Amino acid sequence: MAIRHLKIVALVAASSLAIAGCVGSFDPANPRQVSASERQQGAQAHEQILAEFGGAYNGPGSAMVERVGKEVAIASGLTATGQECTVTLLDSQVVNAFAIPGCYTYVTRGLLSIMENEAQLASVLGHEIGHVAAEHSKRRQNRALFSNLAAIGLGILTGSGQVAQAATQIAQVTTLKYSRDQEYESDDLGIRYMAAAGYDPYESADVLDALGDQSALDARIRGRDEAAQVPAWARSHPLSSDRVKRADRKASETGLQRGAQSQHTERFMSSIDGMLYGDSPSQGYVDKHSFAHPQLRLGFRVPDGYYLNNSARAVTATSGNSKTQIQFSGGRLQSGGSISNHVDQVINGILGNARANAQFSDTRTSTINGMSAATRQARVSAQGGQVDLTVVGYKFDADSAYHFVFISPANVDDANIVRSTSQSFRKLSTAEAARLRPKIIDVVTVKRGDTVSGLARRMAFDDYKVERFRVLNDLDDGQTLRAGQQVKIVVNG
């Protein structure tokens, strides 16, 4: 969660991402260039996308992403000089990449961290630019993939437009959902573009394979169904062994031999050395079941079994064992306003027109960890049944307030979840905030005698050190290191 006073800002609307209607066939041999109207269209969405992902990351890796992206864009024919394309490294740990009309292309820190060389970066960016070049956004409907809270929450159940807008506050991404044929076409275009830009096309299959490994590790660490843990990029770009094999076959059809073109591994490693890994200090840190924000100096804990998800606008928590969904965010407290009024404003903003179908409890005021607090509940009649909503708010200081939103099907006994979570919210001391440190990528050169287990012990994690090290460096089980090889480890900054 990045900003102190959060505003509900809708993600990019379908009208700003796509133009309705049919388009003609696409001929990659006769590419079109980006039009001024498309650039204007993309510019309108760009600022909203930056806000949703915590902004652009301008540290290590950012200049490389822009350079490689523009090289690939030039190879695509969308631009002659690269000036008509905007390529951004997003300050997000989410594993994702996407592009919108106007040649605005994005990749996250999370995805960049699992790559091994510039050729893999060129493959991902080429794929996304392929969607733009082939005008796939004109051939399909947008689909916003919201968090689990939105899926279970009132926007879906009541059909309220205002609720749906509120749900976007906790959405991690707006993802453009493409057909399988469009995905394959973009794979082919990405391979075509990266090869034309001088990069080894065989790395396209390798980065797809690495994404699959990351997905499987995420599922194992979180202890939940693998299908629910697929990274954002893989949800919109489904991964399969057939797709990896197909990418390898398409690379061979270029007539190039593996390794005949550049990978630029050393230059890549040098570029990302010192790059932020995981949560940003400006958004706060998730540590298993706890969240702490060093700049806002606040923290809380959710019950065991919950998985915390930190986005630019809110922190959400879901559990495979509980139907109760949790959201944490904050806002400005009106001058002279009470925390009870703040809670009412939050409820009204969530319910919108559905307020007419709700039954409300009286507001209860209390003191929690030295802060004035208020709690109010509502039961809402929805299309799929009744839903219970509980909001607990805190007056943090003179002009700001924070709150939890708990949503569950009616009559679910979540009193202990609400109580333990809401009672855990507290202010951090100066010393506690100072102890919170970011993680960064440290690129090291393997020395004679170094082993996977030995280097993995240096990883700044309490668990799965070897598994994390192998996935981070695309090392198969049993694969050993060689002297002189560059590898990534994650250390405290």
UniProtKB/TrEMBL annotation:
PROSITE patterns to which the protein is assigned, alphabetical: LYSM, PROKAR_LIPOPROTEIN
UniProt entry keywords in alphabetical sequence: Hydrolase, Metal-binding, Metalloprotease, Protease, Signal, Zinc
Superkingdom per UniProt: Bacteria
A Pfam family: LysM
Gene Ontology MF terms: metallopeptidase activity
Ranges of biased composition (kind: Basic and acidic residues): 240-252
PANTHER family, per database record: METALLOENDOPEPTIDASE OMA1, METALLOENDOPEPTIDASE OMA1, MITOCHONDRIAL
Protein name, entry field: M48 family metalloprotease
Organism: Pacificimonas pallii
